[in-house]
Design goal:
- By secondary structure, this protein is mainly β.
- It has one helix and six strands.
- Strands 2-3-4-6-5 form a five-stranded mixed barrel.
- It is globular, with a radius of gyration of 14 Å.
- The N and C termini lie far apart (about 35 Å).
């Protein structure tokens, strides 16, 4: 009997969750422009929201866990994939 294999995560460190507001796990490098905290994942930038995101240092490589949310006003003019409300952060 053959067992179905779980799909491998897409390139770039993104592990998708159910759409449209599901959980996300992202691994990348922290960037900041003004008050907008972002995570560079492959070639995509994700806005990060919440107090855990604000405590991150630019240049740090981390894995963040959270849910999709609306974009913070501070990130309004930037080209970003989506926004994650960060619940938990781990070093990558």
């Amino acid at each position: 009997m053959r067992r179905a294999m779980a799909p491998s995560p897409p390139d770039g460190g993104e592990l998708p969750g159910p759409l449209p507001w599901g959980g996300r796990t992202l691994t990348g490098t922290v960037e900041r422009v003004g008050e907008c905290t972002m995570l560079l994942v492959g070639a995509r930038r994700w806005a990060l929201a919440g107090s855990a995101a604000q405590a991150l240092s630019p240049g740090a490589r981390v894995t963040v866990h959270g849910n999709l949310t609306t974009r913070p006003a501070a990130c309004g003019d930037l080209e970003l994939a989506q926004t994650v409300a960060v619940r938990r952060v781990e070093p990558a």
